[in-house]
Amino acid sequence: MRWIYLLIAGACEIMWAMTMKMSDGFTVVLYSVLTVVGYVASAVFLALALKQLPLGVAYAMWTGMGIVGTTLLGVFVFEEKLSAPQAICVILIMIGIAGLKILGKE
Predict the structure, then answer these.
(1) Which residues contact 69 (CB under 8 A, 6 or more apart)?
(2) Which residues contact residue 86 at a Cβ distance below 8 angstroms, ignoring those fewer than 6 apart?
(3) 3-state secondary structure 74-101
(4) Which residue segment(s) compose the domain that 58 sits in?
(5) Sorting pLDDT into bands at 50, 70 and 90, what band is 103?
(6) What DSSP state is assigned to residue 3?
(7) DSSP codes, 10-75
(8) What is the pLDDT of residue 54?
(9) Residue 43, pLDDT above cutoff 60
(10) pLDDT tens readout for residues 69-94
(11) What's the rounded Cα separation, in Å, for the pair 106 and 49?
(12) pLDDT given for residue 106 in this prediction
């Protein structure tokens, strides 16, 4: 369950970042509420994952999921530009996340 909790925490991390952008500076009530809900849910599920996962690994994977997810949504949903060097860096983060899971002892 610890990895499921971490995945849910990562998904909530992506959700709150996306809805924060959509809230237009917290002027759109629905997206503002969803931002707060996602933020709290992300912290709760990360805390549950941390009961059984090492802090450094879990936190790195959680933030990495957030970085990769929000970057991809920024490109595909908000039509933000991503340069080749930026894309390479995001790919390296993805490799790091996979490496932490594959090479970890958890």
Answers:
(1) 10, 11, 13, 14, 17
(2) 71
(3) HHHCCCCCCCHHHHHHHHHHHHHHHHHH
(4) 2-103
(5) confident
(6) H
(7) HHHHHHHHHHHHHTTTTTSHHHHHHHHHHHHHHHHHHHHHHTTS-HHHHHHHHHHHHHHHHHHHHH
(8) 93
(9) yes
(10) 999 999 999 999 999 999 999 999 99
(11) 11
(12) 57
What single letter denotes the amino acid at residue 77? V
pLDDT digits (tens, 9 = 90+) for 12-41: 999 999 999 999 999 999 999 999 999 999
24: which residues sit within 8 A by CB, 6+ positions away? 31
Cβ atoms of 18 and 32 closer than 8 Å: no
Best CA proximity match to 43, nearest among 79, 5, 74, 77: 5
Residue with tokens 């490799």: 95
How many whole angstroms separate alpha carbon 47 and alpha carbon 22? 26
Tally of structural domains, the chain: 1
Amino acid at 75: V
CA distances from 1 to 11, 42, 60, 96 (A): 15, 15, 18, 21
